[in-house]
Amino acid sequence: MVYVACCLTLALAWQVGHRGTSVLLAGTAWAGTVLLALSVAGGARSAVGLWKGLRATRAVSQEVLARGDSTTVSAARVSDAAARASLAGRVTVVDSKAPFAFTYGLLRPRVAVSSGLTTTVTERELHAVLAHEAAHVRGRDPLRALIAGLLTAHHFALPLLGHLRAAFAADRELTADRRAVAHCGTPAVAGALLKVSAVPGWALAVPASAMAAPDLLDARIAQLEDGHPPRLAPPARWRVASSVAGAAVYAWALAGSAALVAATPLSCMPVGA
């Protein structure tokens, strides 16, 4: 997108410099201007999202380390369950009375489990929680969530991507539940699901995947009852209509920009092409 923005900027500058500002009234110039504006705005939004995501991930990693709980009972119990879930060395027990567990970290995800969780759930339910989080770790879901957020922010003219992003997050949670059921059984997953609370406030800003997702509770319970994932709600009509309009604008802007660049004797292609 940086390359496209540079090409369009040079083309528009050349057209204005050689033909005057009246050229901006032409359709191709309008198309180039619109595409340039969309590219710059989308790039800025995704850059801010990336910066916030990286900053939040670092802050949560430091918070988890600061809140680390090395008490014998909690550490020993979680260590055993982590080994069974193939998460040995990747689970940190944090000092908190609230029962929660979540996966964080982009390149090498880790799992944070509260000490309150270890005293709230049964042994089988603890295994179910970590089996669920193990699915997020293997799928590098925090990283995928960040990328999905960046794409949604960049292509803000296509609000349907917001729905697809939510559908993707829901699918990852339901998939993690199914894998936990396969390892620990439905009763253990159901029991853990009803006991685990949402991600704590200090971790809300980080791209993470958690055992507790309040907005998906009904869908997850329905999956446990029926044995297969439920059909998620379709996108709102305004999202579909706005995205169709946005796609039309993108198509017009791309076609007009291509014509603008082709009519400008400034090569954006490599020499000799």
List keywords for this structure.
single chain, 273 residues, mainly alpha, 10 helices, disordered C terminus, metal-binding, Beta-lactam_resp_regulator, Peptidase M48 domain-containing protein
Characterise the protein shown here.
The chain is mostly helical. The chain has one domain (2-262). Helix content is 65%, strand content 5%. It contains ten helices and four strands. The chain has helices at residues 2-19, 27-66, 72-84, 115-120, 123-138, 141-154, 160-184, 186-195, 217-226, 237-262, and strands at 91-94, 101-104, 110-114, 209-210. A four-stranded mixed β-sheet has the order 1-3-2-4, with helices on both faces. Helix 1 (2-19) packs antiparallel against helix 2 (27-66) and helix 7 (160-184) crosses helix 8 (186-195). The longest helix is centred in the N-terminal third of the chain and has 40 residues, at 27-66. The model is unreliable at 269-273 (pLDDT under 50). InterPro entries: Beta-lactam_resp_regulator, Peptidase_M48. Keywords: Hydrolase, Membrane, Metal-binding, Metalloprotease, Protease, Transmembrane, Transmembrane helix, Zinc. Belongs to the peptidase M48 family. Residues 81-166 form the Peptidase M48 domain. The chain crosses the membrane at residues 29-48, 240-263.
Helix content: 55-70%
Extract low-pLDDT stretches.
Answer: 269-273
* Number of separate strands: 4
Number of domains: 1
* Sequence of secondary-structure elements: HHHEEEHHHHHEHH
- Label the structural class: mainly alpha
Sheet with the most strands, sense and barrel status:
4 strands, mixed
Taken as a percent bin, the fraction of beta residues is 5-15%
Taking all Cα atoms into account, the compactness measure Rg is: 24 Å
Q: If helices are DSSP runs of H or I spanning 4 or more residues, what is the number of helices? A: 10
The span between the termini is 20 Å
